[in-house]
Fold this sequence. Notes:
By secondary structure, this protein is mostly helical. The protein is built from ten helices and no strands. Helix 4 runs antiparallel to helix 5 (about 55-70). The two termini are about 20 Å apart.
Amino acid sequence: LIAKNRLRHHGIALFVALLMLLDPAFGNVNLDHFYPETWATASFVFMFYFAVIRSRWAWYYVLLGLTLLMKEDTPLVAFMFALYLLVIERRVKHAAITAITSLAYFGVSIALISYFARTYSVFQESGGQMGGVLTHALQPSFYAAKFLEPTFLKYLFDLGSPIAFLPILSPHVL
């Protein structure tokens, strides 16, 4: 429905849907155990549908709330969706509500995770769960070296090649 609405061509929409179904990363989600990421992905797709295609904001906010409850890192993706609503769709009010809600929920969830990580001895030796991230937060050279490693570049190639690197064709959305 989304591809047909945005592309306005049934053949291209069918091609995009087939590419998505043939993507190994998409298919492998259902081969092993059932993870919250599976629900979150579907929830984000329907959030996009109700916000951008149908402008049904009540359903959008219901799905936003459910998505934030699925995993501690989904608020970061929701925040990026808020940026999409702001920059691409020009929906300032809904973008602001989404961004504020996402950041507030992320702060609360990370505060709770950090509290429990400090409380239990498993994380105390490494400086807590966020210790490594905070140590390298102001060292961009550390991340640049990691992102230029051959294994990471191969991962990016393996991730993009089954879908013919189609996201690169729309850099303003990236």
